[in-house]
Amino acid sequence: MRVNGERLAVTMRTPGHDVELASGFLVSEGVLVRAEDLLTARYCAGAGSDGVNLYNVLDLALAPGVASPDSSLSRDFTISSACGVCGKDSIESVTTRSRFDVSDDPLIVDADAVLDLPGRLREHQKVFAKTGGLHAAALFDGRTGELRVVREDVGRHNAVDKVIGWALARDLLPLRGQILQVSGRASFELVQKAIMAGIPMLSAVSAPSSLAADLAEQQGLTLAGFVRGESMVLYSRADRVSCNDAGSHEEFSIATNQKGT
Predict the structure, then answer these.
(1) Which pTM was predicted?
(2) pLDDT tier for residue 97 given thresholds of 50, 70 and 90
(3) Quick check: helix, strand or coil at residue 8?
(4) Domain of 118, in residue numbers
(5) Rounded to whole angstroms, how far apart are CA atoms 81 and 31?
(6) What separation in angstroms does the CA of 175 have from each of 18, 34, 58, 100, 231?
(7) Domains in the chain, number
(8) pLDDT by residue (tens digit) across 67-85?
(9) Which of 115, 153, 230, 232 is 20 to 30 A distant from 37 in Cα terms?
């Protein structure tokens, strides 16, 4: 990925939705907020031995007045597809201050609806169904339950960047009232990405890291982990999940960790 002709990062990704991937990444880094902040995105020449462009280099031009990424954001080596935090100079550079406050989002969602999200995501994981090897992220409207978008990628953080890039292109940020569902665990960076996009709730089928739980609690994001079958663990802002209508699941429970409320 290049910004205004300058190299910013190299990442391993599943090809497809590359502009969403790059623009979502820049939202997560605090560079882009509105669709008009991105002027153009184009592939640079990068031909293989047969002379065909591999479409592996993307250059993004920022609109006039939009500050270029801080040089400290530049990765000195290839970003692992499993951990986008790798290559950061320090943990402080990851905790970019968001322009959106998720703590005051009035979202209230029924617990049954949250428990249904992993299954609804799986129904749309077309590449995973064929390979069993890709992560996925989806955006759901917390008020209506509507599935807004699904993206798959070999990297968890890439899939989330593609979802956020999709929303940026439609000028939907901040994503108030929305739920981000991911297919794997909830890392620190996924929580950070949700906060930067103004998403008030992150749901994961597996565990969050302790740093992810700490950041979610600090910023007022609802973090749900182990969302499987009849139960989930709420690590922060459990008040956004309502148990009043929990009737469609025969056995229902919500547990909180020691830091939970």
Answers:
(1) 0.86
(2) confident
(3) coil
(4) 109-256
(5) 21
(6) 21, 12, 26, 9, 26
(7) 1
(8) 988 766 555 444 555 554 5
(9) 153
